[in-house]
Amino acid sequence: MAYKQIITVGHDAELFLYDEDNNAIPSIGLVGGSKECPREINGGAVQEDNVMAEINIEPCTTKRQFVNRTNEIIESLSTIIKRHGLHYKIMDFQKFKPEFLKHPQAKQFGCDPDRNIYTMKENVVDTKLLQSNNIRTAGGHIHIGLSDPDFHAMAKTSLVKGCDWYIGLPLTILEHKSERKAFYGKAGSFREKSYGIEYRTPSNIWLSSDDLKMWIFNQVQTLVRDVLYYLPNNEMPQHERNIAGLGETTFQEIINHGQADYAQDICNDFSIPIPSLEKS
Question: What is the pLDDT of residue 111?
C-alpha cells in the first residue's frame, strides 16, 4: 500500500535572449534579480544567471497549476525583455560574441556543485573550456518536494533515479546528442534539498509546449508513486530494479551520450511515455 504524502513540483529553468537580428544577448542588467535576491513575480520569480535569464515557480500540487504558473512567469519575462527589443528562445547551448562575456557576472558558473547519484561524487564542470570557447548552456531543473522527504533513508536517492528513468531517459530521445551534456546535465545530476531534490539532468527543452510541461508533471507523479509504494516496505522501487538490470554504467551512457535509439527501445520495452515536440 502506498504511503500518503503531499507532492509538490517546481522548477528553475534558463533561457537565452536574442535581439531582432537573432544575436545572443546577455541578460546582465536587463532582467533584474539574482540568486540571492530574485525578482519576485506573481507565482514565482525571474533573475539573471550568468548571461541567461532564469525563471522559477512556486511549488505546485496540480498539473494545471504547474503549467499556468510556468506560462505566467514566461509571459512576465517576455514583457520585461521586450522593453529592450529582445525575445527568448528555448535553446540549451549558445555561443556568444567574446565582447559579451567580459562582465564579471558572465564568469560566474553555478552557486553550488551538484552530484552524481550513482557515484555520489561532485560533477566537475570545465568552466575554463566554457569561457575560452564563449559557450553557455541552459538547463530546466525539476524540483520535487514531499511533506516528509526523510521518511526513508533511500527516499531521495530513489527519487533521483526515478527522475532518470521516467524523465532523463525519454528526454534523451528529444535532446539527441545535446552539446550541453559535455558540461552539464549528466545522468543522475542532483542537489539534495530540505524538501526533497532538485533534478538537474534536463535541459530547458520541455518548456517548448504545454504538452511537454504536463508530461513533466505526470512523470514526476508516476515516479513518486513508485517510490512511495515500495520504500515503506523496504523494497527497491521498480525503476531502480530496471536500471540495475540494464547496468548503471550502461544506463548513464545512454543519457550522457544522447543514444536516442537505445533510449527509444527501452521506453518502448517498459512502456515509458515518450514526449513529443509537436503540439497537439
Answer: 66
